[in-house]
Amino acid sequence: xxxxxxxxxxxxxxxxxxxxxxxxxxxxxxxxxxxxxxxxxxxxxxxxxxxxxxxxxxxxxxxxxxxxxxxxxxxxxxxxxxxxxxxxxxxxxxxxxxxxxxxxxxxxxxxxxxxxxxxxxxxxxxxxxxxxxxxxxxxxxxxxxxxxxxxxxxxxxxxxxxxxxxxxxxxxxxxxxxxxxxxxxxxxxxxxxxxxxxxxxxxxxxxxxxxxxxxxxxxxxxxxxxxxxxxxxxxxxxxxxxxxxxxxxxxxxxxxxxxxxxxxxxxxxxxx
Length: 272
Description:
The chain is α/β, with parallel strands linked by helices. It folds into two domains: 9-57; 92-271, Rossmann fold. Helix content is 32%, strand content 22%. The strands form four sheets. The protein has a six-stranded mixed sheet with strand order 8-7-9-10-11-13, sandwiched between helices. It has a five-stranded antiparallel sheet with strand order 4-3-2-1-5, with no helix packed on it. Strand 7 (99-103), helix 2 and strand 8 form a beta-alpha-beta unit. Helix 1 packs parallel to helix 2 and helix 3 (133-144) runs parallel beside helix 4 (173-186). The chain is elongated and about 65 Å long. It starts with 8 loop residues before the first strand and ends with a strand. The relative contact order is 0.13.
């Protein structure tokens, strides 16, 4: 009998139990107990593991602990942004850039939307599995006409992968690159559509080559679930006349410029 099921919260013994995951899928065959596909609870990391490498943990305590961590993270940036952008709650003269946030994680989408709303933004949030995002991109962009679009979810280097210049080494990077190409076919001008794409350890160079303005992860490191949200919010709430550097765009994110990179871009906030 299998010891785990989809939805269980687990750690990996081989990595010292450093990251909490939820079991997202299980593939069983006659000659092995099962291959478990995992998605991070706090980080946008996708991974896989054998059954004997997993440890199940108490879901009640985990939920409380992770929710507390989310709340601290969101509250810290909420207070920081409230101080920096007090006008966000006065919509009479300024219009922040419109954000479309497409996420392959329902829980991360909910947390991101909560963060946006607390800042005073009203983005459109849509849940779409990572492999389905290329097919969904054009319709979503046509329907919502955003200034800023985020395509994110989970990702990661596959276990044992050594060639970081091959899409085969990544879980979902090829889909992010395909999605960005579709978005750029919709709007080729980067001054009219800001695109963020990727998750933990994503194939940064190819996602940027596909047309993303910002992407993860230049150093193949982990990013926090709210990091794409912070970048999108900063672009949205910076005046159109101002240029944002990569260092400024990622300030306050988990891994900074090692986790997210891009190019100088202008803000998307306009005066009414």
